[in-house]
Amino acid sequence: MTTHTERDTDTDVHAIVDEQLRRSRQRYTLGRRELVDSLLHLGRPVTIPELMDAGASQSQSSLYRNLAILEQCGAVHRLTSTDDAARYELAEELSEHHHHVVCSICGRIDDVVLPPAIERALTEAANEAREQRDYLVDSHRLELVGTCADCA
């Protein structure tokens, strides 16, 4: 299930990634574009083997290299799950604000968008943390850990 908001067109995402890469003095190659498309359409954090199973035409080493470059420029975010396998997703700026549910058995991570009332409560919790510890909180992330349907 894809939880990412559909943009007017995928072109918007590609234009942003192209600009991020240019600022890092990198090119937006066909392989990187294909990778962004895959992450956009898979709609959840995925491992490199999952990208390959989804039809990525690049070698495993090329996927690692391109994901590292996309991560360095801020287009991709890397997550580590309960199984220590790296999973990759588009940065929140290219999708929508979301949180994660993590399977404690297989390590799968899925995106979840919380209702506005819960987001407001998390903002209040961030404000409370600021008051208690004198931190300026820029953003928040929430991971819920449990068991996915496949492992249940």
Question: How do the helices and strands line up, and which of them pair or pack?
Answer:
Blueprint (H helix, E strand, L loop, with lengths): L9 H14 L6 H13 L5 H6 L6 H13 L3 E5 L5 E5 L8 E5 L5 E4 L3 H18 L9 E4 L6
Parallel strand pairs: 3-5
Antiparallel strand pairs: 1-2, 3-4
Helix pairs in contact: 1-2
What keyword list fits this structure?
5 strands, Arc Repressor Mutant, subunit A, 152 residues, three-stranded mixed β-sheet
Q: What do you see in this structure?
A:
The protein is α+β, with helices and mostly antiparallel strands and 152 residues long. The chain has a single domain (10-146), classed as Winged helix-like DNA-binding domain superfamily/Winged helix DNA-binding domain (Arc Repressor Mutant, subunit A, Orthogonal Bundle), CATH 1.10.10.10. The protein contains 5 helices and 5 strands; from the N terminus they run ααααββββαβ. The protein has helices at residues 10-23, 30-42, 48-53, 60-72, 116-133, and strands at 76-80, 86-90, 99-103, 109-112, 143-146. Strand 1 (76-80) and strand 2 form a beta hairpin. The chain is globular and about 45 Å long. 23% of the residues are buried. Mean pLDDT is 90; it is low at 1-8.
